[in-house]
Amino acid sequence: MKFGPLCYREKTIDFLDKKGISWHATVVFYLPDDYGSDVENTSPHHLSMLFYDHIVQGDTQQDVSGVASLLEAAMMQLKIDLPKVKEVVAISDNATCYQNTRLPIILPFIAKAKGFSVLRFMHTETQDGKSMVDALFAIALQHVSKIVVEGMDVITSSTLVTALRAGGGLKKTAAELIQLERKNKNFALGIIFDVRTITECHGLEEIMSINTWGGAQIGKGLAFDVFVIPQ
Fold it and tell me: Origin, by domain of life (predicted)?
């Protein structure tokens, strides 16, 4: 989402025509070791959660390379918090910035480089209903507003992170300041041309090659092999 600056003594005119601060959130559902790996026979209330707030510094463009970089940041944090996890299922609320057909192709490669396998990438209809991400934003905004009332101005990316961390921050939540490296934004985009439609993505953990067609799988299409170097 985009966060608008907040000041303790705010003048509306100071913030007219502002782009806002890019704020992306990730909610991680995981099964603690106490319950083993029998996910199918485990009740939903046995799941635990982690929350990541990623605040972008000096960049408001939410294109595919920017979003992919933020997902990479989330996986880097996940690797620290849950080092035993090797497989993930990615679920998106299909907000506008995630509506890019190249993203489901790029994501498994980013994950593999960080030591994860993406089993499936799923998305809802565009922001269909509310999710835990909406709840996270609501609670976080309430926390930031409380800090502002206490006298702190939150007008930059760094002060937003400071506010989110204030008072020990929110429970099980990490707030990080992210700076995108635009010089390397074509790290994977250069080999992925204009894919018009992706109807389904699954079995992504064993990608060795990708086949593409102009439409309806007519003809041989184009194929290229995939090599992922762990980082």
Answer: Eukaryota
